[in-house]
Amino acid sequence: MTVNLLRLAGRRPMTFAVVLAIALFVANLIALPRFVASGQLVPTLGTLAPFAIAGMASTPAFLSGGGGIDLSIAPLMGLVNILLVTQLLGTPFGAPVLAIPLLLVLGAVIGATNGVLIARLRFPPVIATLGMFFVLSGVDLRLVPDPVTTSTPWTEALAGDVGPIPGAVLTVGMPLAVWLVLRRTAFVESLLAVGDHDATAFSAGVNVDAVRISAYALGGLIAAIGGIALTGLVRSADAQVFNGYILAALAAVALGGTNLAGGRGGLLASAIGATCIFLLDNLLAALHVPSQYVQVAYGGALLFAVVLGAVLFTRQAEAT
């Protein structure tokens, strides 16, 4: 059965994440039966949303290949959270019809800046985005050296209910909807082609630099959505709140089956991978495992997913 599962996962890399998510869900039910109680479902989804969005925001950079990675996703979520709480809410620009577009544009611009550094100026992705990580982390800390609380109906609803719909369905659904629209264009096909082999894509007429810049801009835009969702969850601005999403986002991408070398994967896979991370986190908390071991679990999950992905990718390459 294990061999058959590996073969299936080789053809459909998301299979492993789905199986693992189901297993972790069952384990959570055993350890914490009230996990899916009617009053707990919406708050649980609200807590899951930033994990899922952080994983999805990290995905386009990996898909673009060339060693693509975006380490600035988590502090960018923190910056959006901080700006929303300290600069927009309570002003005429704090209404969702104005605040959300402004923050999405900011996220896309910061992501595109990473893309320009990588595609045009030829910075290694890990160096460019690590530099942006430190810049954004410093800005976050400068803006709010101490946490600032807030209370506004529209942000709180994002971690609760928006009418009859859980707010998390909207925040997680927005990046997936954007990705679905993009799949109907040439962009996703070009992105996967660039990630698979940029020289071949270039010879076929694809503008490799433009695709990579767009990939990082897309990741920044999705991270801005994550920052808005995070605001609804924590109801405050905190320069340290994003720390829990740094490793989780990378582990989510790897667990979801996205090829970290580029060319294969998608946002839905990363969302399922993030669900695994969230369920693992919840299970460890239910079992009263000391918090310091949570990071160990994240690192272990990341290493396991990378090794498994390499094995499955090798099997798939040998089969073709």
Short description:
The chain is mainly α and 320 residues long. It has helices spanning 2-11, 14-31, 38-63, 73-88, 96-119, 125-143, 153-156, 167-183, 186-196, 198-203, 208-234, 246-255, 267-286, 292-319; strands spanning 148-149, 161-162, 165-166, 236-237.
Can you tag this structure with a few keywords?
74% helix, 2% strand, 320 residues, globular, two-stranded antiparallel sheet
Q: Output the structural class.
A: mainly alpha
Fraction of residues in H or I helices: over 70%
Largest sheet: 2 strands, antiparallel
Strand order of the largest sheet: 1-4
User: Low-confidence runs (pLDDT<50, min 5 residues)?
Assistant: none
What is the average of the pLDDT values?
87
- Number of H/I helices: 14
Order of helices and strands: HHHHHHEHEEHHHHEHHH
Q: What is the straight-line distance between the termini?
A: 23 Å
What assembly state would you assign to the polypeptide chains in this entry? single chain
Cα shape: globular
Radius of gyration, in Å, reads 19 Å
Beta-strand segment tally: 4
Strand content: under 5%
Any overview of this molecule?
The chain is globular and about 55 Å long. With about 325 residues, the protein is mainly alpha-helical. Strands 1-4 form a two-stranded antiparallel ribbon. It has a two-stranded antiparallel sheet with strand order 2-3. The protein is built from 14 helices and four strands. The chain starts with a helix and ends with a helix. A hairpin with a 2-residue loop joins strand 2 (about 160) and strand 3. Helix 1 packs across helix 14 (about 290-320).
